[in-house]
Amino acid sequence: MTKFLNNKSFLDFMRLLSLSLLILLLFVKMDCSKSTNSRPVSECRINGIQTVFNPNPVTIAAGESAEVAVEINASSNCANFIKDMYVVSPDDNIGPPNSYICRVASVNNNRGGCTISVSVPGDEPTGIIQQQFIIHVSQHEPYWGELRHATATLDVQVLGAPDYSVSLFSGNVGVAQGRSTTVPVTIERSGGHSADIDLSIWNLPNKVDFSFDPNPVPGNENTSQMTVTAGPTAVPGEFGLKVVGNDHIISEKSDYFVLIVVEPFTLTTDTGSVTISQGQSGTVNIDISTMGGWNESISFTVEGDIIGQGATLVDTVFDPNPVPWDVHSTSLTLTAGESVEPGTYQLTIKGTAGVIVKNAELQLTVAQKLYSSNPHSGR
């Protein structure tokens, strides 16, 4: 037995067996360690990461940019493995990025968010384009064979360059002297236009005023009310005007329209002249023409150096006076005093309704009174 234990071949065999057992134990330990760690890692796959853009799609005008929120959610299997998450451009998708668009603010509970700025070139045509991003994930420890990048797509609705137009509800605007009328002004915006717009009138007639409410038109509103006020002595007629919008960024925009100023009523006599003798009377009829919707009475007077009461003046009486809105004529009776100087006189018939005064001219001739002969005189 002693001889056998001292055999050199046997001792070498035992040494080799011990070394083999040691190596086997090391492999078993390593395999157990790898199995313990690799299982959750294998379940933390990049396809388990969801990316949500808000808004999506995002609307951006050509040449402009917009902020988009990014929400990144990872599977619960990735707990304790995720270190950082980034949003990067497609050409920067390898390894922990040296540059990135945004870094997720928090990865607690395997989720977090950040904000990206999305720009559209000025020459980009209108329509929908898809913009690609890479979601880069870094872990606390590197594990060979695990994907670290996922793609995410944002839809971008491209609008044309910001622009606007100004238009009136109607091409013709009518207003009576002494009155006002209001019409809407419409702002059409495109390309994300949101600037305030100042409104004004080009070629404004004398004694006609314009106002807008609101003015300027705020960037989030698209209408304004234009009020036109014609003075009592504004010249009647048609005037070509433009309503002009100016946002002080783009060139001015305008819309052409015709302003029609009308007289609310007019006066005419059935004859332009009348002749009466001293101490006698004569009658003239005055016709009244009113615009549609007229609803005011009209008071009448006569002006002239010869008008008044007394032997040397001419008295006047209208019937009716004032004239109701639905009556379209009145009669003027003129009575010359006994001692009125014979001659021709220019009179002005005035009709007044509020601030509106309209005239009609009348020529009055006063003739000397004729006396009949007395056959008994001189006896």
Query: What count of domains describes the coordinates?
Result: 3
The CATH topology of the largest domain corresponds to Immunoglobulin-like
Q: Give a short account of the largest sheet.
A: 5 strands, mixed
The H-and-E topology, N to C, reads as: HHEEEEEEEEEEEEEEEEEEEEEEEE
Mean pLDDT equals 85
How would you name the CATH homologous superfamily of the largest domain? Immunoglobulins
Named CATH architecture of the largest domain: Sandwich
The poorly predicted ranges are 1-5, 32-42
Q: Tell me what portion of residues adopts beta-strand conformation.
A: over 45%
What's the CATH class of the largest domain, please? Mainly Beta
What is the count of β-strands?
24
Share of helix, binned: 10-25%
Structural class: mainly beta
Shape: rod-shaped
Distance between the terminal alpha carbons, to the nearest Å? Answer: 210 Å
Number of contiguous helices: 2
Query: If strands are numbered along the chain, what order do they take across the biggest sheet?
Result: 2-8-7-4-5
Description:
With 379 residues, the protein is mostly beta strands. The chain has two helices and 24 strands. The strands form six sheets. A five-stranded mixed beta sheet has the order 2-8-7-4-5, with no helix packed on it. It has a four-stranded antiparallel beta sheet with strand order 9-11-14-13, with no helix packed on it. A four-stranded mixed beta sheet has the order 10-16-15-12, with no helix packed on it. A hairpin with a 2-residue loop joins strand 23 (343-353) and strand 24 (356-367). The longest helix has 36 residues, at 8-43. It starts with a helix and ends in a 12-residue tail after the last strand.
